[in-house]
Structures are given as structure tokens and as C-alpha cells.
Design a protein that fits this description.
5-stranded antiparallel sheet
Length: 725
């Protein structure tokens, strides 16, 4: 029967289509194996020390042992691991560059020391582990693991189905704030009109882990938040320091002066919730002062031409003045104060001299002819040097050692006794003309017993930083005591002592005082007395120059007729202003209308960019330099040179596309390659063919059955059957 023939044809077609579909499926199944490789995450076992019985806030360490069967140590050269306490834990610990243990299977280990991660006694005990591989394989994993032995009950492993019963131990009672601004932190600064990220270092002063701390910030009037919220969170372990960042904007109307940012910290201390107010001081530089340097005038040195000036004698006093204001000063008045008829006077001159012009960063020395009164007693006579430039006035003390002829009265005995021996600073040195913030310097003191008849004994000399109006002192001893003991100094004798001093890193550039305190004994009129004296010396402080200039940005090639712009970023990372910054462009095969540009002063922490348009002259190489010239805080001129180059090309006319040309099909960007898409298309076509064949066969079979039932099927020729279909 024809029906049977049709059925056989359909079965053969279906078999072919199914075969095509199976082949396509096999090919597509192989595609992921060719294009991707997936590996399981590493397994980790965790042990603690001690292994059990750990209670809330107890100290413990952890060892994390990792095993990764998918890789060997040749696949991974190093591992970065970060472990963070969550759910009953607090704190975090991270190590980078961990080396694998070696072997056929990748294994590595992390040791978490005591005090890094703490059990808080609240909730489940879980660690969040982040792993990053470096080498041939650069996989990253993040997963959580239960910590062993942190249930306080001596069990080997925490049972998540059994609630933890904490054993809290209240920490010691707080005295004062637990959280403070880190000691030695630099003063926060901002310019009016500036947008800046303030970085505030907050320290935990206690031996308790404070964990998550909520910090709310209140800004002074004239300041607003830029891109940060008023409330942020930080984490503090025991004796740890964390950084709080505030993105703020200072309005142009803010005046110069010191403002206060109020921080409110909220945290849990033991079973109590604590709230603390933390002031952060902010120095604001107004628009009217931003053109200046922030520095000032200073007396950097003085000299008396005699080691000791006899009473009734003459001497010369030399005073060195330096201009640190960032601009030239005209008509600067230098005046001596503290003069007296029975003390020290100017000999044949005026007490005031005028410096007509003093350039920025420059210094000059003035000399005064002086005289001492015959009535002066032995000891240091103090004079004050005042510098006045308009409304600005700066003063500094100088000390004149005098050998007197008048005896002093003994306050405890009637009549006239033996003159008390005086101890004075004969001279001192500190290496260079100035010292640098954050560095040590050698301080050498030459001290003299001015008495011509009496020795002094049991001399105790102490060196301390003199208090300043803006700081408690900037000098501290470096790795030594600041106290010296000298058993005996004969009459007229001199002794020398040296000490290394450290300058505070954030000290503003200016002169600071050092106090030298003496306590000594002398036998006067047969009676041993204890005497005291204090000498003050000045040491000028500067800050290291950290002016940085990035590489020049100029994209190559460039085309003749264009006027490309070159750009370069610069920043003053030092703590001192740099002065009179200028940029000069030089080179070949280009011109510019701005050969040399003056930028001015750059404050500490300020950054900016220099942009310049250039005009290429001809096709070929273009080379040039940008020379940055400026003066540092010491007045020294410095240069930084940055090179740039490019290739100048002729601009070609764009080609006209042939309308008769049809564009070649492009491969899809990303995803599977072209061959994979072809296979997918073949597979889809096979599926459609199978569906069509099945439908056609069923329809024909149904129709033929109907014809057989009506006895019409045998009378129809085969060709007619085909046409009817």
C-alpha cells in the first residue's frame, strides 16, 4: 500500500534528522570544555590556640590551612588572604604574597596572631574569608567558615543548632575618652573655596576591642559635605588606629582661622553603649591669604663678637633676618628692645634699622654697635629683636653673656658676700643653617662657668623644647636622655655636651626655642648653696621639599594643522609652601603663544594641572620639554624638567566608499566564536526539520486512512496523490 511507503519514507527522514540533532548536541556540549575552566573553591580547616574554652574578649590565635586539589604550586605563585570576623566575631587580618607550601597539590597557610580577631560573645562564630590567587591562575574566592572552639564550653566545634551562652567580661572602667585623634597627627587644613578629602586618624586608647563604631560629624559654619555622609562607620581593635575620611567643601566666604569639626562616636564598651565627643581642629586659609605663602619673617641667627662681654665694654651684635612670606618685603624695620642705661645700649647709633628690599626666601644680616653698663652683674642679658612689616610684627630674643664687676647681695645674709657664680651658654650649633621637620639633628652646647674665683659642682643640665603659641614643643631627644650630669666645672671653665634631637614631622617652618635648664651647687662664704639658671636658644625649622610633577600627557600621532593641548599634573606633597612657580616650554617642530607661564605659590597639599596648546610646524618628529622652576622654603631655586614627544602626520582626505560594495559580515563581538554560532544554527534547523517531518507524516497518514475508509484510495493514481498534497 502507498500508505506503508509513506510511513517508511517518514521514518527514514526522522532517523536522519535525529542523527543530525545528536551530532549537533555533542558538538555543542564540547564547546564549554574548549572555552572555560571552572575549579572548586579551596577547602579550609581552622584551629585556634587555645583549642577550647575561649570566652568573650579572651586572647587567641588561629591557623587556617588551605587545600586546593585543582591546582599545583606551579599554577599559583602567591596568595592574598583577608579574614574578617562576622556574626559573633570582630576585627580583621590580611596578608599578601603568601607562598604555597609546594607539592603536587596547592596548599598554603595563614596564621592570625592574637588580638587581630576577637570573639565578642554574641551570636554565631563565623569568619568571612577572601582569597586571591596570583600567577598563571588569577582566581578569587569569597566564602564563610565556622570557627572552632569559640563557645566557652570546651567543645571542639561550635554547634549552630545549640545557642551560644556568652561569658562577658566587663572591661576596666573608662577614664576619659576611649577614642582620640591619633597623637602626632598633622593639623587638618583647607583653603576657602576648596573641595578636599580630610583624612582623620582615630585611635583606640584601650586594651579592649571596640569593634564597629558609628561616627557622626558636625561641620563648622561655611562647610558642607561633598560626596560623603555625615555618619560613617569604622572598626577599632585594641590599641588600633583607623582612618575616617570626610569629603567636604569650604565656601569661598570662610575667613582664615582655626575651626572645629565635632565628631560623635557611638560604640559598645562591655555591656554599655558609650557616646564620646571628639574635637578635630581645622586650619582654614581664607581667599585673602591664599596668594601668600603662609610663612613669615624670622630671625634665623644672631652672633656676639665676644664670648663674654665685660661690663663697661663695647661689642658688636649681628642679627640675621629671613623673608619666608612668599613675596618681596619693602621697608622692613628691625628694632632692638630691652635697652637700658644701666644695662645694654646702642653705641653711637639708632635702635632701629631699615631693610629697604628683601626678596622672597632671601636673608640679610644687620650689625649693631653696642655697649654694656659698668653696673651690670655677671649673667645673660636679654634683648628682643622686633621685625615689623606693616601690620605684621615678629619678635625673637637674643642673649648677651656679660662678665660683671658688681657683686650681688646675698638675700639670706646681711652684708655683702661672695659673688654667685653664673653659668651661661657660651655658644651652640645644630649642624646646618636650619633643621628639617621629621629628621634628627646634632645639637652641641658649649657652657661656661663665668666666675673667676668659684667652681661649681653637681651640675644637672636638662634640655627641653620651649612651648610655642601653636604647639607644646617640636623637639624631642632621639634615643637618649635629655639630662646631663657634670661633677665639677672650675672657675672660668667650659664644658661641652652633645645630643641628637628629633624635629616634629608637622612643625610649621619657623624658628622654635629650646630651653636649657641648669641646677648646680657652689660654696659661697663657706656655705653650700643650690643655684638655678635657664638659657633659651632658637633653632629654625624647615620642611623637606616634596613638589612632584607627573609625566606630560600628549597623545600621538597628531596632525598638521591641529592645535593639540598638552597637560601635566603637579602636587605639593610637602608641609611647606613652594614659591614663585613658573613653567617654560621649549622644543622643536612646534610653536606656542605662551613661552613661559607664571603660576605663583603652591600651598602644602595643593594640586593643579598645567595646560598648554602647541602648534605643529611640519610633518615629522615633535619633541619638547616643560621646565618647572620654583623656590623652596629656604629660598633655594629648584628645577624639574619633563619631556614630551609625538609624531606629526599629514591629514589625509577621507576615502569614499564604493556603493556597489556590500560590507562583509562582521563576527559578533564577545561571546561565542563564529563557528559555534554556525553549529547552533545547524542544530536549530535540524530541530525545525524534525518537527516539520513529524507533522507532515501525521497529516498524510490521517488523510490516507480517511480515503481508505471511503474506498477512494485505490482509484487515485500515485501522481495525482502527489498533486493533491
Amino acid at each position: 500500500m502507498n500508505y506503508t511507503k509513506w510511513k517508511q519514507k517518514g521514518e527514514r527522514l526522522m532517523a536522519v534528522a535525529v542523527t543530525l540533532l545528536m551530532i549537533t548536541t555533542l558538538i555543542l556540549a564540547a564547546v564549554p570544555a574548549l572555552t572555560a575552566h571552572a575549579a572548586s573553591e579551596p577547602t579550609v580547616s581552622i584551629t585556634t590556640d587555645p583549642k577550647s574554652g575561649i570566652k568573650a574578649f579572651d586572647d587567641f590565635s588561629m591557623d587556617l590551612n588551605f587545600l586546593h586539589n585543582a591546582y599545583t604550586d606551579s599554577d599559583v605563585t602567591s596568595v592574598d588572604i583577608t579574614v574578617t570576623g562576622v556574626g559573633g566575631m570582630s576585627g580583621s587580618y590580611a596578608e599578601k604574597g603568601i607562598r604555597p607550601s609546594g607539592g603536587s597539590v596547592l596548599s598554603y597557610r595563614l596564621h592570625v596572631p592574637e588580638g587581630k580577631i576577637t570573639y565578642t560573645g554574641m551570636g554565631a562564630t563565623t569568619l568571612l574569608i577572601d582569597v586571591k590567587y596570583n600567577g598563571k591562575v588569577t582566581d578569587s574566592y569569597s566564602f564563610q567558615r565556622t570557627v572552632y572552639s569559640i563557645d566557652g564550653g570546651g567543645n571542639d566545634q561550635y554547634d549552630p543548632d545549640e545557642p551560644v551562652i556568652p561569658s562577658p567580661m566587663d572591661p576596666p572602667k573608662l577614664v576619659g575618652n576611649a577614642i582620640i585623634v591619633k597623637e602626632g597627627s598633622p593639623l587638618q587644613t583647607i583653603n576657602a573655596g576648596q573641595s578636599k578629602t580630610l583624612r582623620i586618624q582615630l585611635s583606640n586608647t584601650t586594651n579592649s576591642i571596640l569593634g564597629k563604631i558609628q561616627v557622626s560629624s558636625t561641620l563648622p559654619e561655611g562647610m558642607t559635605f561633598n560626596s560623603s555622609d555625615a555618619t560613617k562607620s569604622i572598626n577599632l581593635g585594641r590599641r588600633e588606629t583607623a582612618e575616617l575620611t570626610l569629603d567636604v567643601v569650604a565656601s569661598k566666604e570662610m575667613a582664615s582661622g582655626t575651626q572645629t569639626i565635632s565628631l560623635k562616636a557611638m560604640y559598645k564598651y562591655g555591656s554599655e553603649v558609650k557616646t564620646e565627643e571628639i574635637p578635630v581642629y581645622l586650619k582654614v586659609t581664607g581667599m585673602d591669604e591664599q596668594s601668600g605663602s603662609g610663612g613669615s619673617l624670622a630671625v634665623t641667627n644672631y652672633k656676639v663678637d665676644k664670648s663674654t662681654v665685660p661690663a663697661g665694654d663695647t661689642f658688636k651684635l649681628s642679627v640675621t633676618v629671613q623673608n619666608n612670606t612668599g613675596k618681596a618685603v619693602k621697608g622692613l624695620q628691625v628694632k632692638l628692645d630691652g635697652l637700658a642705661t644701666e644695662g645694654i645700649t646702642v653705641n653711637g647709633g639708632l635702635d632701629t634699622q631699615t631693610i629697604q628690599n628683601l626678596a622672597s626666601g632671601a636673608s640679610t644680616t644687620l650689625t649693631y654697635n653696642m655697649a654694656t653698663s659698668k653696673k651690670l652683674e655677671t649673667g645673660n642679658q636679654i634683648l628682643t629683636v622686633s621685625l615689623k612689616n606693616g601690620e605684621e610684627e615678629v619678635s625673637s630674643k637674643v642673649f648677651v653673656p656679660v662678665k660683671g664687676t658688681k657683686t650681688s647681695s646675698d638675700e639670706d645674709n646681711e652684708g655683702v658676700g661672695m659673688s654667685k657664680p653664673q653659668i651661661i651658654m657660651q655658644s651652640y650649633s645644630f649642624g646646618e643653617s636650619s633643621v628639617v621637620g621629621g629628621q634628627t639633628f646634632p645639637l652641641t652646647l658649649n657652657v661656661k662657668n663665668t666666675s673667676s674665683v668659684s667652681a661649681i659642682e653637681n651640675v644637672k643640665m636638662t634640655i627641653e623644647s620651649a612651648p610655642d603659641e601653636t604647639t607644646g614643643g617640636v623637639f624631642t631627644p632621639a634615643n637618649s636622655s635629655n639630662t646631663f650630669f657634670i661633677a665639677r666645672v672650675p672657675a672660668g671653665g667650659v664644658f661641652t655636651e652633645s645630643i641628637d634631637m628629633l624635629v616634629k614631622a608637622d612643625a610649621a617652618p619657623k624658628s622654635y626655642g629650646l630651653q636649657v635648664k641648669f641646677s648646680y651647687e657652689a660654696v659661697l662664704d663657706g656655705k653650700r648653696e643650690t643655684l638655678e639658671a635657664t638659657e633659651t636658644i632658637t633653632v629654625p625649622v624647615t620642611q623637606p621639599d616634596r613638589f612632584e610633577v607627573n609625566e606630560v600627557e600628549l597623545y600621538s600621532p597628531i596632525y598638521l594643522g591641529d592645535s593639540p593641548s598638552i597637560s601635566v599634573q603637579f602636587v605639593n606633597q610637602g608641609k611647606s609652601t613652594i614659591f614663585n612657580l613658573s613653567v617654560e616650554a621649549e622644543g622643536e617642530n612646534f610653536t606656542t603663544g605662551e613661552g613661559k607661564s607664571y603660576i605663583g605659590n603652591v600651598e602644602s597639599g595643593a594640586s593643579d594641572s598645567f595646560d598648554l596648546s602647541i602648534n605643529p610646524i611640519d610633518v615629522g618628529p615633535l619633541t619638547g620639554t616643560l621646565k618647572f622652576t620654583y623656590e623652596d622654603a629656604n629660598g633655594d631655586t629648584k628645577e624639574i624638567i619633563r619631556e614630551f614627544s609625538a609624531e606629526v602626520m599629514q591629514m589625509d582626505m577621507p576615502a569614499i566608499d564604493d556603493p556597489g560594495m556590500e560590507p562583509m559580515p562582521e563576527e559578533p563581538q564577545g561571546g561565542l566564536p563564529m563557528w559555534a554560532w554556525i553549529l547552533i544554527g545547524v542544530g536549530a534547523a535540524a530541530v525545525v526539520a524534525v518537527v516539520v517531518i513529524v507533522v507532515v507524516v501525521k497529516v498524510k497518514a490521517r488523510k490516507k486512512r480517511l480515503l481508505e475508509e471511503n474506498d477512494e484510495f485505490d482509484d487515485i493514481p500515485e501522481d495525482d496523490e502527489d498533486q493533491q498534497q
